[in-house]
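User: Thanks for the earlier help. One more: Peptidoglycan/xylan/chitin deacetylase, PgdA/CDA1 family. Can you show the sequence and predicted structure together?

Assistant: Of course, both are below.
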Amino acid sequence: MYLLFLLVVSTNVRFNFFVHSYSRNSKIQEKKIAISFDDGPSEITPAILKILHQYEAKAGFFCIGKNIEAFPKIFNQIIAEGHLVGNHTYSHTRKMGLLGVKKLVWEIEECNRIALETGQVKMKLFRPPFGIVNPKTKKALDKTGLTSVGWSIRSFDAILSSEELILSRIKKRVKPGAVILLHDNNAKTVNILEQLLLFLHENQYELVRPDKLLEINAYS
């Protein structure tokens, strides 16, 4: 039973068991909400940026280091258009939960190094790949000085195939102070985002950057 408990708290960043993560702002009463994107930049990201621009909305992009290397111009476009960029490790390996502290520190620092070299930003915010956190994650964050950011609404856009189901899942959970998780390396997310922004606009929600919503510093 204890092992099952450890598995659950290690794979859900929102529990704040091993690492404190900013996943929502429960103090906010106004209709303010944040959208964040993981796993980019990618060839899909410009379409995401175009829609955000149309709605005059700002979002957060938690970027993979090797993808910044692959799409440096898109990474700089994200920054130039006023969006937040954060650390999502260098490789986003599926073995993330098995990595030792030294390797985790390298993953974080290498992503930050590339971001600084490419976009002249010193990223301070970190999103754990797959939401996996454990005592080694805490030690790595203590060593690197980064702050963990989670989410309160998981869309499962990287898993579910139905756009209607994904959108319905998000809409049911929308509330002031929430942070929505999407992915900007998935083509269907483009259409989902457009419909979501229309829904938020019709319901008088203001979309703000995650760091502004959570009242934390994005850069050092």
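User: Great, one quick takeaway?

Assistant: The chain has nine helices and nine strands.
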